[in-house]
């Protein structure tokens, strides 16, 4: 498979720009687990030297997107199910706290805004619009995080968001997942509107733990080796 990443046109912050470009490429491309990346080809396609490229690859390796093996090369490194489940447990803890804190600050306008996120979807037909619903799902969770007004909580959540982006995309397509997620989102909005911190935290936690159970109990991902 020929690799093709977007070249970088801005001279400043080359390592940061290379990191963003490569991460988007990894998350949006049909790459195989353990596929080797050509460092020279990547540098040429990005239009940068190897120094900022290596900085970007090192950061991606720390986040688990690639694996660097001395004298062997750089390889695509999708996370195994066990790690995905652990990340979802952490996400459940963070976002349940975000929902709890959001109850202190949420306004009627915020509630209307959250509902608007899902107004185009119906539980009986949402399975036909999983791509659009997946985007709405991301927007909803980010809005709840913002409502927490906790900069550190938002920062920690952002650090794990991209690590499960592909998981969200593929699991939302599973039979019944989109419908269940929509109903769960609406119930979370209801408890936020009531400004009930315990119920909001509980519903958010169970919503995310439900995804963890789905992954643990048999979700299949394209990058998994067939047995």
From TrEMBL:
<dbReference type="InterPro" id="IPR036390">
    <property type="entry name" value="WH_DNA-bd_sf"/>
</dbReference>
<dbReference type="Pfam" id="PF07729">
    <property type="entry name" value="FCD"/>
</dbReference>
<feature type="domain" description="HTH gntR-type">
    <location>
        <begin position="12"/>
        <end position="79"/>
    </location>
</feature>
<keyword id="KW-0804">Transcription</keyword>
<dbReference type="InterPro" id="IPR036388">
    <property type="entry name" value="WH-like_DNA-bd_sf"/>
</dbReference>
<keyword id="KW-0805">Transcription regulation</keyword>
<keyword id="KW-0238">DNA-binding</keyword>
<dbReference type="InterPro" id="IPR000524">
    <property type="entry name" value="Tscrpt_reg_HTH_GntR"/>
</dbReference>
<dbReference type="GO" id="GO:0003677">
    <property type="term" value="F:DNA binding"/>
</dbReference>
<dbReference type="InterPro" id="IPR011711">
    <property type="entry name" value="GntR_C"/>
</dbReference>
<dbReference type="InterPro" id="IPR008920">
    <property type="entry name" value="TF_FadR/GntR_C"/>
</dbReference>
<dbReference type="Pfam" id="PF00392">
    <property type="entry name" value="GntR"/>
</dbReference>
<protein>
    <submittedName>
        <fullName>Transcriptional regulator</fullName>
    </submittedName>
</protein>
<dbReference type="GO" id="GO:0003700">
    <property type="term" value="F:DNA-binding transcription factor activity"/>
</dbReference>
